[in-house]
Amino acid sequence: MSHPLSLAAVALVCLTTLVVGGLGLRLSRRTSDFYVAGRTVSPRLNASAIGGEYLSAASFLGVAGLVYGVGVDMLWVPVGYTLGYLVLLVMVAAPMRRSGAYTLPDFAEARLGSLPVRRVSSILVVAIGWLYLVPQFQGASLTLTLVSGAPSWVGGLVVMVVIAAAVGAGGMRSITFVQAVQYWVKLTALAVPAFVLLALWFRDGHPSPTVPDGWSIPLAPTAPDDHPVYRTTSTVLALSLGTMGLPHVLVRYYTNPDGVGARRTTVTVVALLGTFYLLPPVYAALGRLAFPVLPEGVRSDSVVLRLPGELVGGLGGDVLTAMLAGGAFAAFLSTASGLTMSVTGVLDQEVLRPRLARLTGGDAPGVRGFRFAAVAAVVVPYVVSRASEPLGAATTVGLAFAVAAATFAPLIMLGVWWRRLSTAGALAGLVVGGGATVAALGTTMATDRFTGWPGALLADPGLWAVPLAFATAVVVSLATPGRVPASTTRVLVRLHTPERVRLARSRTHD
Amino acid sequence: MSDLPPPRERVRVTSSRRGASPLRVRAAARDIDEQTALGDVYLEGLMRAQLRLSLAVLALTLVGLAALPVLLLLVPATRSTTVAGLPFAWLVLGVVVYPVAWVLARWYARASERIEADFADVVEDP
């Protein structure tokens, strides 16, 4: 089937992104433009920008798909996404801003002054970023195939090209305002169809949906050897700790004026995310009404997009579908551009620039390396998205959260609150936490030989891998007191002292 | 001649105390900045107060989250209770958690700003 209106909406969203990327080229010529713009950003605008960047395919399509498919237990997923910002707020928001770091490797280096820690952090940023980008491309493919009948490789390709062009041109992330608008675009695109569908449902005498057994019963095992309590606890822990370690989250904190502003921004983020997450369950429940069983070969992620056509039909249905398709593309593009920017920055700084400088004797202009890096940053996850079986957007994103929770969360939290963290301890925590999580998730994906408890522990490693990473970092740090950086106290003074107190030596002038 | 006043006792004249440091307590902010032992005590106090507040919020969150499964387990009737047409568990997980999380976040932000303001009052120049 083909929906000209939806195609127009998708094209409009893509064009806007490209134009804004092009404008970014004109507006942000110097590095200082990139940084200084942040000084004037109010907490409310900044919070919208964070929300706009954070709400991805997983939130827009994936949550409703999961709740539709599995039931009430999946409501924990958006709760985990939101709690991530509560944990971020109470543990790291203000110190993160005061650190003056722009990326996670920057933070690691500022706190520990260690090149190996910076290297490992960089590898992790790229890995988490790529893992997070894969479902964005898959979501785009699904959406475009649904609204235009195009082959499934087209949607991801469109997003890939638009993002590479926008990021390569000027770094669209520099424009806080655009990301802020994206939040409201997504909220509107999801809310208006939801209210229309709800109104129609009431008019028809609000019939109850037919649901499979256990769909609305919390923490009910879905199989004989399923462990729903473990699975849910582990997922919520990974989501709520993983948020602070996502590559595209820290960067937004730089645009807060000070630590207090960073906290106020985060409070508003919690409110904005909470508002948004009221909507996906509506789609899941109405989806149960419209599709008691999904037709063969239809993924549950597409429930959101299919609903208006099924329940409304005609021109009204087309308009609502177009809104949803446009909103979904806004979600893919805004999240993907933030992630691509982070991955590109790391690839450029750590890999390409040193190599190019050696090859050309320092003659190559810096921007060329940045553009190569932008292309590499999107091509790899696109290839993976084509080669791998789609797992469902929220599930794949969950993997990225799990890795972030077992690596960056211990590093950042111990870095902010614990004086005795040594470089060896930080490094060991990153390697052990990341290695264990990747191994467990990899095993789960490679083989379904493990069932029962081993299967559950491997599929959701958060609950044991995160404490393991913390314990490793602490034990190794205590064993290597000689490797505690000499600058620790100075950095902690900077992270915790309120801006009102004048510090001549400890403060960086950013 | 004899009624001449007795000679004054000789007095040792030393330099005035002009160069001595004034009787003003130096601001603790400098100690913090220069990472003296005293500054360390101040920093330790601030960090401890902030961390205690943060851990309290996390503990509250944890208790709140765990309360739902525990309630559903201990009082099986709540599994099928509906409030305003919505199942109880759906209402809690889909709606109620979000405003509660926001209120908690707001309370935390205010409390930690208060800690910082008190700290700044103590360590800055009087």
TrEMBL record, chain A:
InterPro entries: Na/Glc_symporter_sf, Na/solute_symporter, Sodium:Solute_Symporter. One of its GO terms (molecular function) is acetate transmembrane transporter activity. CDD domains: SLC5sbd_u4. It is a multi-pass membrane protein. Coiled coil: none annotated. It is found in: Cell membrane. One of its GO terms (biological process) is plasma membrane acetate transport. Its main location: membrane. The keyword Magnesium does not apply. The chain crosses the membrane at residues 6-25, 45-68, 74-94, 115-133, 153-171, 183-202, 236-255, 267-286, 319-347, 368-385, 391-417, 424-442, 462-480. The keyword Membrane applies. Keywords: Cell membrane, Membrane, Symport, Transmembrane, Transmembrane helix, Transport. GO terms for cellular component: plasma membrane. Belongs to the sodium:solute symporter (SSF) (TC 2.A.21) family. This is Cation acetate symporter. It comes from Phycicoccus endophyticus.
Automatic annotation (TrEMBL), chain B:
It comes from Phycicoccus endophyticus. Keywords: Membrane, Transmembrane, Transmembrane helix. The keyword Transmembrane applies. The chain crosses the membrane at residues 53-75, 87-105. This is DUF485 domain-containing protein.
